[in-house]
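Researcher: Go.
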Amino acid sequence: MLLYVHAEENMNLETQRKVGILEGDLAMRKLLQDLLKQEGYGVTIFSSPEDLEKADPTTDALVASPSMLAADGPLSFEGIKKIRPEMGIVLIPSAQEIEKARELVAQGAFSLVSRPFQPWELLHRVRRACELSEVKRQNQWLRRKEVKEPNSEVRNIIEDEPTLDELEKRYIEIVLKKTGGRKDKASKLLGINRRTLYRKEREYGWVATYPNQPLSRVAH
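Model: Structure:
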């Protein structure tokens, strides 16, 4: 899944995914921080759920211990979902927290990875949570754009309830059309390099799509 986050109507782009950590154990917190930073994520440590109220609104995912999301706290899990509805929450329960974690997943947490976990497994869940967060923000941006600038292409994306891959494909096509097929400009707006854009076009079977630059001549 590509990274294309629209912060405002001018299509400013964030190129680094942001992940928060809400974990009481210092050693685990340090392990998570190092692991995520090595993968290129921007990492923020939260000491309590209440800190999320002041967090960067573009935080894509939260890795959290279920015990830190106590329902009787000042800010419950439901409260977190209200103030950060786009943020994917990945739970890392201990053996004693499994049932609580399953309850939270049923209430809207993205996923859970039981301790002890393999680094690749956690990173996979975090990546998918970030992708979902990006698509949710993308959909919100498209909805705002449709209100201001009615557009049948945008409306179709919103109303059809597409899968993540379908949404990605349709949006790339719209951006390419709007930029007249200019791969340099389109890749910048999408937040990817031209090699990735070229690969996506091949996957979609777009052989010679847009007027000024056939696919076969795109620079890698």
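Model: The helical segments are 26-38, 77-83, 98-106, 119-148, 152-159, 164-178, 183-190, 194-204.
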